[in-house]
Amino acid sequence: MTSNPATGRALTPKKVAAFRSGLLAWYDAHARDLPWRETRDPYRILVSEVMLQQTQVDRVLDYYRRFLEAFPDAPSLAEAPTSQVIALWAGLGYNRRAVNLQRAVAAVVHDHGGVWPANPEALRHLPGIGPYTAGAISCFAFEQPVVFVDTNMRRVLHRVAFGPEVPEPLASESEVLRVAAEVLPTDDAWRWNQALIEFGALQCTAKKPACLVCPLRTICAAAPGMQAALASVVRTPPGQGIPFTGTNRYWRGRIVDALREAPRHRLGALQLGATISPEFDAERLPWLRTLADGLARDGLIEIALSRAAASGGWAAHLPDRPARRG
Ligand code: SF4
Q1: Residues contacting residue 18 through CB under 8 Å, at least 6 positions apart
Q2: Domain termination residue (choose one: 142, 158, 190)
Q3: Is the pLDDT reported for residue 222 higher than 90?
Q4: CATH label of the domain that carries residue 179
Q5: What is the pTM assigned to this prediction?
Q6: Is 138 touching ligand 1 by the criterion CB < 6 Å?
Q7: Model confidence band, residue 99 (pLDDT cutoffs 50, 70, 90)
Q8: Ligand 1 pocket test, candidate residues 207, 226, 227, 230, most atoms within 8 A of CB
Q9: By CB atoms within 10 Å of each CB, which of 134, 145, 239, 293 scores lowest?
């Protein structure tokens, strides 16, 4: 299904009204109390948004609290040694997020005099800030009526307006964004965008949407065929996907973990190799160096020449200065 050629809209005005009232009522009844919903501080909202990328809410809560205890405001994070930021990120994964977060905050502190831009276009000029995060900060910190979609929001909008997104999406990204703009109540954008995210996380989930008890089922294009569409998707049985161990991302994570644990966050190359793999030997130094160079380009580690006999010629350490623009 695409938009109605007569109106250019995917949803009739009556359905838009029912969508808004149904979703907002559901949100008021079911929304979780989450700390980033109780603040309008753009720094705290950015921290939460970066942590929530690829990590579940339940896991993020504790990290969020500890991170803000260590770095309660933008200047404290901007001036911290990157090694300390990466150390605190241990267990969250995707360490690049920590460095990019610090770079974005440092840009606000140093390039904007500590004043956060409120509109998404300006926010996108900050290092590592994509369209979703820019929209989220603009809406959740400054209550701007901004259209943006993450995975949960996209799924809900697609299902309600077009139908099941599996086995293949029925609408393009731009069509979904057009629906997002159509349904956004501009006088209640903060609550609306929070509601879309929460609904996608709790009710209209990827694999088990609760269609039978859904307040939107009478207007949802996906409702009649959703369960059949999900059943038609061949899922990879657990453990039969591409093995994570052995991927570059796996080894990059091992290197950062080894440096996190090392005295002064520093290891000679041979020691580093032996720490991440018992099979490591000197012949694998070029492989290790390629991985280390990639991490250094991303600002996660620094590499220094080393004359120590057992080092392998170079050593790696977590950056002991604050991150600046990449
Ligand atoms: S009816 Fe099902 S697919 Fe449609 S919005 Fe509700 S939970 Fe999602």
Answers
A1: 216, 218, 219
A2: 142
A3: yes
A4: 1.10.1670.10
A5: 0.86
A6: no
A7: very high
A8: 226
A9: 239
Q: Taking the chain, what is the end-to-end CA distance rounded to the nearest angstrom?
A: 43
Residue 228 pLDDT level (bands cut at 50, 70, 90):
very high
| DSSP output for 47-71 | HHHHHHTTS-HHHHHHHHHHHHHH-
242 falls within a domain: no
Q: Is 49 a catalytic residue?
A: yes
Choose the catalytic residue: 49, 165, 198, 302: 49
SS3 318: coil
In the reported structure, the alpha carbon of residue 27 is separated from the centroid of ligand 1 by a whole-number distance in angstroms of 14
Residue 309: its pLDDT value, please? 62
Atom of ligand 1 nearest to the CA of 215: 6
Together in a domain, 124 and 161: no
Q: Is the CB of 215 under 6 A from ligand 1?
A: no
Cα distances from 1 to residues 9, 207, 295, in angstroms, run 11, 22, 44
- Token pair for residue 24? 């907002």
Phi/psi for 139 (5° steps) reads -80, -50
Q: Please give the mean pLDDT across all residues of the chain.
A: 92
Continuous segment of H or E residues that includes residue 101: helix 96-111
Query: What φ, ψ does residue 266 adopt, rounded to 5°?
Result: -140, 140
Which CATH number fits the domain that encloses residue 252? 1.10.10
Asked whether residue 260 is assigned to any structural domain, the reply reads yes
Split into its structural domains, the chain has a count of 3
Structural domain ending residue among the three candidates 142, 167, 194 = 142
CA of 205 to the centre of ligand 1 (A): 9
Please report the sign of the dihedral spanned by the C-alpha atoms of residue 131, residue 241, residue 226, residue 232. Answer: positive
Judged against a pLDDT cut of 60, whether residue 2 lies above it is answered with no
Residue 4: what pLDDT? Answer: 59
Reply yes or no on whether the pLDDT at 7 is more than 60.
no
> Are both 56 and 187 inside the same structural domain?
no
Higher pLDDT, 42 or 322: 42
**Would you state the pLDDT for residue 279?**
83
**Candidate from 162, 203, 214 with most ligand 1 atoms within 8 A of CB, to mutate:** 214
